[in-house]
Amino acid sequence: MTVRADLVEVRQALSDGSPSPLGGLAEAKALEARMSELLGWFPASGIELKGLAPLLIDFPAVFDGEPVLLCWLEGEAQLGWYHKASHGFAGRRRIPS
Asked: Which residues contact 62 (CB under 8 A, 6 or more apart)?
């Protein structure tokens, strides 16, 4: 996610007091606004945003009549995991074939 990486770079430069080719405080505020806009899409679409770096999202689903969350972690090639809501990421299991 380019916006996320750019925001990290600009924030670090501001923190260090060093210049960034990506800009300064105004650009950081614009990037923060853009991130907020992008991230707002997830809950509006029924998707739970659990983490930003790496991106971690959960999708509500039902397996064998039981509510679960399908779980995707940035870098995974496909949606292949689920967990019970009360178990969280540590309780992830492979989606059965």
From this structure: 68
